[in-house]
Design a protein that fits this description.
The protein contains 3 helices and 4 strands, in the order βαββααβ. The protein is an alpha+beta fold.
Length: 104
């Protein structure tokens, strides 16, 4: 991700309440929808015992708009009713970033 310093990260950690194929379909749909939202920058996901998704946004307003997007609201409700035994959302301001890439 090549962005200027001073953007936001939304860190979503979750524990699953079971295996449901509909969850995978909804997750893919939400990833695609998030990428279409104004202010979206990037997303990274890792899943095992603890699911971790970090999405990057230009502003707090863009994050709030994503939270209120109608399809995302449906996904949130299904997550609470069917797919998660718990989750936590953390919103952080990224003050600085740096990277290493072998061979670069």
């Amino acid at each position: 991700m090549t962005v200027a310093d001073g953007y936001y990260a939304v860190i979503f950690t979750s524990t699953s309440s079971g295996d449901d194929p509909a969850y995978d379909a909804m997750a893919k749909s939400m990833d695609k929808l998030a990428q279409q939202q104004p202010g979206f920058l990037h997303m990274e996901t890792a899943k095992s015992e603890l699911g971790i998704t970090v999405s990057y946004w230009q502003s707090l307003q863009a994050i709030e708009a994503w939270k209120q997007a109608s399809e995302h609201v449906v996904a949130q409700k299904l997550g609470q009713e069917k797919w998660y035994s718990s989750y936590t959302v953390r919103i952080c301001k990224v003050e600085r970033q740096y990277s290493f890439e072998a061979g670069a």
